[in-house]
Every structure is written in C-alpha cells, then in structure tokens.
Amino acid sequence: MPEAKQMKCIECHGIMNPSVMSLQLEREGIVLIFEDVPCLECPSCGQQEIPGAIAEEISNLAEYFVKANQAVKDTPAVSIGRINIDLEPQATFTSALS
Ligand SMILES: [Zn+2]
After folding, report:
1. CA of 49 to the centre of ligand 1 (A)
2. 46 CA → ligand 1 middle, Å
C-alpha cells in the first residue's frame, strides 16, 4: 500500500499535518464563514494551506449557497458552519439558516 504523498511547508519545508481551519469568503457582498475546513498545517511555523481540490470545492459551495439562498442577501455575514468535504463531487454542508 503506497504511502500518502506528504506536503511540505512552503515556508520552512517541514512536513505538514492534516488539520482544520476557519475560512471567510466574500461572494456578491455576502461574507460566508466556513468552519472546520480541512487543511494542512505546519507544526513548526504554523503555516496553513488548503489543498487545491478542497479550495475549489469551497468556492463551488459558496457560489451554490449564494445562488440558492437569496435571503442571505439581507444578512451581512452568514455562517456556513461545519462542512464535510470528502473530495466527492457532491460535498455536503449544513447551513446556519436551515
Ligand atoms: Zn513551516
């Protein structure tokens, strides 16, 4: 069984560990707050990085959320809350509005 490819820190070249982080995105004037976003974190310098596939998924979720929830346009900030991204095309998320 092949080992998972290890990501190296761009700052100090340490091996990055899987972690989670909070992320804020703005779409059409709406601030979307994602929590528990899967990311990689450097144990040495604290550098955080979101893998490209996950960043793309988050971007798609943000677009979808803004389009699907017109009501949020009256709200300055929306917490998307905990998201569950498993790199499948149909990522799921729970909304603070539901
Ligand atoms: Zn580092």
Report:
1. 10
2. 6
